Every structure is written in C-alpha cells, then in structure tokens.
Amino acid sequence: MQVRNILSRKGSSVATIGRHDTVKDVIDSLEAHGIGALVVIEADQIIGIISERDVVRGLTAHGPGLLGHPVAEVMTREVMTCTPRDSIDHLMATMTERRIRHLPVLSEGRLAGIVSIGDIVKYRVDELELENNRMHEYITTGR
Fold first, then answer.
1. Which is deepest, 6, 34, 39, 50, by most CB within 10 Å?
2. Number of domains present in the structure of the chain
C-alpha cells in the first residue's frame, strides 16, 4: 500500500502557518484544527514544521514568553517528506527511526497532503480488519 491510499481517504488538506506568525498562533491553529503539527510555508515552499512537541520544548527553554515569539524560532527546519508513491511500510520505518509523527507529502515539488502516525495506524487497523473479515467469511462460508 502507498501514501496515496491514505490521502484518498483523508484528503489533501494541510494546515500551514508562516514563519513570522507567533507560537500563540500555532497553538490556536492546532486547537482549531484538532491536529498535532503545522507545515511552515514561505513563498509556496516548505521551510519547516512545528509540532506540539516543538512548542513544549520551546516553553521549557523560554517560559511563557515564548507565546509571542515567531514560529521560526521554534520550528523544526529539517523536514522529512514523502511522496504519494511511498509505501506505508517505508513511512512506518522512517517515522520510527526518526521519531517523528508527521510527514508532509510532496508531489512534483508541491505540498499534496500530510500523513501522521495516527493516519498510518488507522489505515493499518482498517486493512487488518478487512483481512480478518475476509478470512472469517472464507472459513464460515467456504468462499
């Protein structure tokens, strides 16, 4: 299975933020969208990603005054990405190795979606449930 299978179910919408927006803006956006990370965009290019984890680390280092600081001070600059053709197994390995929870999806150099570890787990559980149902049907009906 490929990333495109996940995107076909969840859609390609990606919440983004600018480097000059504040950490408070990040928190508000994460809450409003019910998500754990925002892609940082400048001139239609990915320049970073900021997650709940980045905010917590920033608060630990700078205290509550961090809320007024720009995103650029806290964001992760080295952004791992994937493509719609990448396999789910490859994503699971990358996310586990790198200890990351979100991967922006690039198609022809453009942001085409984002995949979280939660998306992958949901996809795998659905896949296993379908396989289990098919096995059960085969055992009980012989077809």
1. 50
2. 1
